[in-house]
Design a protein that fits this description.
- The protein is mostly helical.
- It is 76% helix and 0% strand.
- It is built from seven helices and no strands.
- Helix 1 runs antiparallel to helix 2.
- The longest helix has 25 residues.
- The radius of gyration is 18 Å and the shape is globular.
- The relative contact order is 0.10.
């Protein structure tokens, strides 16, 4: 079952259950996927392309959450946390920090990186391996730790 089909099924279920917040998030995700499909001029997107869209939506919400926390907007904080939870349902299982650290060490060895100057090479080789499975800021932090 493709992600779009799953979203359609979940949207119908949310309508039946009168879950307005969930329905709103599903519609936003569906719209983002359809817009990306139009932009890429494709009827069917690959799983990787769908994951890119989901990751972007999740990152936007996490960034918004941080801004709302900094501004003391408690009313929007709770709403955004709920949206994040709904988006995470469609994301692949996240890797633990230890698993990401192991992948970082393997990639550093494979690329032959020795200093922070090689960080771009490491990140370029590493991000496709952990795309959608690990937070980019965590990956960045671990790469910096291992390159010092």
């Amino acid at each position: 079952m493709s992600l779009l089909e799953r979203l359609n099924d979940d949207m119908k279920q949310a309508m039946k259950n009168k879950e307005k917040d969930k329905l709103s998030v599903i519609r936003m995700l569906k719209s983002s996927l359809q817009n990306e499909g139009i932009k890429l001029q494709k009827q069917e997107m690959t799983a990787d392309e769908e994951l890119t869209v989901l990751s972007r939506e999740l990152k936007q919400r996490k960034d918004s959450l941080q801004e709302f926390l900094n501004a003391g907007r408690d009313d929007l904080v709770e709403k955004t946390r709920t949206e994040i939870n709904y988006v995470e349902v469609y994301m692949p299982q996240q890797l633990s920090e230890e698993e990401v650290s192991a992948i970082v060490q393997e990639t550093i060895a494979a690329v032959g990186a020795t200093s922070k100057a090689d960080m771009g090479k490491v990140m370029g080789a590493l991000m496709p391996k952990v795309k959608g499975k690990a937070d980019g800021s965590l990956v960045n932090k671990l790469v910096q730790q291992h390159l010092t």
